[in-house]
Amino acid sequence: MNLKSGLPFWLIKNGLAKDYRTLDINTETEVLIIGSGITGALCAHFLCEAGVKCIIVDKRMASTGSTTASTAQLQYEIDTYLFELIEKIGEEKAVKAYQKCLESIYTLEKIIKKLKIDGNFEWKSSLYLASNAKDFKELEKEYKIRKKHKLPVKLLNQEELQKKFNIRRKGALYNNCSAQIDTFKLCTEILNYHKKKSGLVVYSHTEITKIVSKKDEIWAYTKKKNTIKAKKIVAAPGFESETLLKEKVMQLNSTYVIVSKPMKDEFLWKERCLIWETARPYLYIRTTQDNRIMVGGLDEEFQDPEKRDALMDEKNEAIIKKFKKLFPDCPIEIDFYWCGTFGETQDGLPYIGEHKDHPNMYFALGYGGNGITFSVIAAEIITDLYLGKETDSSIFSFER
C-alpha cells in the first residue's frame, strides 16, 4: 500500500538519496531491522554505536515511506493530555512518558552533534492554542499538572496571546523546549554515516514475506526467496507492522499537508514557533529554513488510498481557510502538498519492546503525532533489551 501521495516537500528539497542494493543472496547478521525510515535508522544508530552488526531491509527505496511525509515537529507533549493519561495509566507512568519525550529531543540533538551530520535541527518554542473557551479550561487544568511535575510550560491568557503573537484565541500553553528537523535528511545521513563507519548494510526493494523464530535465532525470508539469519529482528515498518500482529493496536488515519511559497519575514509570526490546537482533528503549523510555512492536519479516518487522495483538493482549501483565520493578513500560497497515512493508539503512546507471540523480535511502533520522539525512545529501549541491560519499557509495552 502507498503511504503517501502528492509531492512531499522533503523529497523535492533534498532529492532522492543514492539508492541501496537489493538483497539477492542468503546472509546473516546479529540484528535485522525491518524498515529504513527514521525509526529504523535510529534503532540502527544505537545498536551500531554499541558495536552490534546490523542489516536494514525495506520493501521500498530506502527512507521513502512515511518519513518523507513527516512535518517533523518535535514536542514533549503527546496527543493525550497529561491529566487524561494519568487517568488511563497512573500518575507515575504518565509523567515518565512525558519526561522521556522531553529527554528524547535533547538526545536527538546530541546524536546530530556527535555524528557531525545535518538534519536541520532547530530549537523552537511551541504554542498549544485553545480552540474555544471550554478547551481553555482544560488547558488550565493541564498547566497545573505539568507545573506540578516541573515540565516546561507557561499559560498565556487571551490578552497575553494577542499581545505577544497577535493570535486571537482564548489562550494557549507555551514552552520553549520544542524543536523541528528535516526528517528525511536526518534519516539518510544517519544511514550513510553508519554504512561508512559501522558496516551497516541497507537493502532496498527487499520485502520480507515470512519470519520463523527458532530457539536462539530468527530467520526472515524475502519475496525473492533469499534468507536472512539473525539473533533478533527489530520491526520498525510503521503501521504496516499490523500484518505481523493478530490484535489491532492502532487506528489508521490520513493527514494532509501544504507548504507555501517562500514568505517575507514580515508575514511570519513571532519566534516562528510551532503551533497546534486543541480541536480534534487539529491543525499544526511550522516554518522551514527557507521561510516557507508548513500547515497540516484535518485528519480523516483512513479507508483506502483512493478515497484518501480524492479528498486532497478539498482538504488543501480547508487548511488554507483555517490558517487564514489565525493569520488573516498572511498572503499564503500553496507550492507543495501531500497526504500521508499514520497510526494512532487509544492512549497516544507507542508500542515498544517484545510481544508474547513473537519470540526473538522487538517492535518499535511510534504511532501518533510524536513519531520521531517515540522513535528515539524505542531505539534506546530496544538496544538496552538486546544488550541485556535493565530498562523500564512497561509504559510502552503491549501488556500495558
Automatic annotation (TrEMBL):
SUPFAM superfamilies: FAD/NAD(P)-binding domain. InterPro entries: FAD-dep_OxRdtase, FAD/NAD-bd_sf. It comes from the Bacteria. Pfam families: DAO. Gene3D superfamilies: D-Amino Acid Oxidase, subunit A, domain 2, FAD/NAD(P)-binding domain. Residues 31-385 form the FAD dependent oxidoreductase domain. One of its GO terms (cellular component) is cytoplasm. This is FAD-binding oxidoreductase.
